[in-house]
Write a structure and sequence with these properties.
single chain, 247 residues, mainly alpha, 0% strand
Length: 247
């Protein structure tokens, strides 16, 4: 077998070895997942994957993408999706993960569209798309702007929350543009993403967030406003519950 096949086989082996069928049923019900779970907790999953990822280093970016694709598309249990994200995020592959290669962006888009649920999309947004955007703003900003206008909710969510870890490096023009693409969407996950992104950026620039909420209070949902202003000081000029349309 090739390096990627060895890695995939070993990941699948350790997932089965740590399976907890009783826990798995509850996890699947909670996540409303069509894929079953093996029943690993997050700490158990990290512990199980750590030596496997260390021992099976992939030789190049093509093999890295192939391993992620194979784990994702061939998954029989949801933990294989989580393992695919762990491969994407692993420190060994940071250079490849932050290069704006067309093949990597196409793969990332595929993972988001087919994952289509918050547990995987939020990881891919903040730890997949976010680092590439931070490293290559000129190249990735047009991609983020395009995704923010997609019909697909999850691509729009990535565009909104992808800058959450960027703090002072956040491009507020891009943030506002991304929010605008979903501000009238009544879907819970769109409204929550808007509030979450504003809440995170308020830790860096509460005045900007306060001004944004005041300016758009007639269009932001109550949920978005509650999230955005959760930790916003009154000195930012925004009341705890500014006027907003119903959630």
């Amino acid at each position: 077998m090739g390096a990627d096949e060895d890695l995939i086989a070993e990941i699948r082996r350790v997932l089965v070895a740590h399976a907890d069928p009783e826990r798995a049923a509850g996890q699947q019900a909670y996540m409303k997942s069509t894929l079953p779970y093996h029943g690993l907790t997050s700490p158990t999953l990290r512990t199980a994957l750590r030596p496997v990822l260390a021992a099976h280093r992939l030789p190049d970016a093509d093999a890295w993408r192939a391993a992620i694709s194979a784990l994702w598309d061939g998954a029989t249990h949801r933990e294989e999706w989580y393992a695919a994200i762990a491969v994407w995020r692993h420190r060994f592959y940071r250079t490849w993960a932050t290069e704006p290669a067309e093949a990597s962006l196409a793969l990332l888009r595929h993972l988001v569209v087919t994952g289509a649920w918050w547990d995987v999309v939020d990881e891919l947004a903040q730890h997949g798309f976010g680092p590439i955007l931070a490293a290559h703003r000129a190249t990735l900003t047009p991609v983020a702007r395009a995704w923010s206008r997609e019909e697909n909710l999850w691509l729009r969510r990535v565009a909104i929350i992808g800058q959450n870890p960027h703090r002072a490096a956040t491009d507020t023009n891009l943030l506002a543009f991304a929010i605008e693409g979903s501000i009238d969407d009544r879907d819970f996950f769109a409204r929550k993403a808007i509030g979450w992104a504003l809440r995170e950026y308020a830790k860096t620039d509460p005045a900007w967030v306060g001004a944004y909420v005041r300016t758009h209070a007639d269009r932001l949902s109550a949920l978005s406003v509650r999230e955005a202003t959760k930790h916003l000081p009154h000195t930012a000029g925004t009341p705890a519950s500014p006027p907003a349309r119903n959630a």
